[in-house]
Each structure stands twice: as C-alpha cells, then as structure tokens.
Amino acid sequence: MKYIAFILLAGFGMNQAGGESYVSKNARISLYSKAPLEDIEAVSGKGVSVLNTTTGAVAFTVPIKSFQFDKSLMQEHFNENYMESDKFPNASFKGKIQEKFDVSKEGTYPVRAIGILDVHGVKQSRTIPGTIIVNKNTVRLTSEFTVQCKDHKIEIPRLVFQKIAESIQVKVSTDYTNYQK
Known about the structure:
The protein is mainly beta. It has one domain: Lipid/polyisoprenoid-binding, YceI-like (Lipocalin). 12% of the residues lie in helices and 51% in strands. It has helices at 2-12, 72-82, and strands at 21-33, 40-52, 57-63, 68-69, 90-97, 107-119, 122-135, 138-148, 167-178. The protein is elongated and about 45 Å long. This is YceI family protein. It comes from Arcticibacter tournemirensis.
C-alpha cells in the first residue's frame, strides 16, 4: 500500500514546492447495484488517495480484489467474469477539483473534480461531484456517482441481466492526513 501512495505522489506531481499534500491510505469505497432479482453490494477500505490542497489535484486508486461481498460466489464472479481483476487490477481517478476550499477554515465545501476515471482498462473523462469537510485538523472528502458498465466495456451476459444492473452506484469517503507533518 505504501508503494501505491508513493507512485501517486511521485507520478502525479503532488508533492510540488508550494503545494500542501494530504494522503489517505484507507479510503472507503462502496458499490451498489439494484437489479430486479438481487441487489449487489460491496465495500473496500483499501483505497489510496492524494489531495493537493493548493492546486486542487486529486488522485484515487483502489485494488479491485479488495472489494468484499456478502456472498463469496458473488465476489468470485465480480473479479473473474465482470471486472477481470487479474487483467485490470485497479480502478483509478486522476483529476483536479474546480472549486476553491480552505483547509485552515472549518466548513463544508461542495466541489467537482474533473478528470479521468479508469475502470476495467477504459479511461473516461468525468466530472465527479463531491464534498470536502474541514473539521479541526481533519479533511474529509465524500462523493457519490454512477458508473455505467457499458461505458467501461464491462459486459453483462443476457442470462444474468435480471441479477445485475447496468449501472453501479459508487460512494467514496476518506479522511486525509497532512503528508508534510
């Protein structure tokens, strides 16, 4: 996990002079899909994120195999049949927050990040809404958005379309710590 955080910092230029970087090594990302026959839910607490509060640059990555399901067979099908997690081991987002926010002032800041969402090896330009909450020494980012399976070439066989929805609701919540401290 430290390796992934280092790659995010170095490769994304997050630790630039004059920039203040915040890091999260345990971002919580949940997936929810409502389908006619069965709802599907999964959660990972292994997301890694870096946020530069000066430039607004933000990056996330999550190992696909880290998502946990209530049913082990569902988890197996998710990894092998749909997400092909051996071939595409991570999902990621790299972008820039458009609105200004001040980590020295407590408050709630509605934000939008414009960037590239990479899921299942397919990169897509996205604008993702979120909220930054500054409370004492804590910086929290939350977001909720939808991913269409077809947009990332995730194929759902017609035999199981009653069990799997064509869109997935994604929720992200993470607390950052100041990287320089």
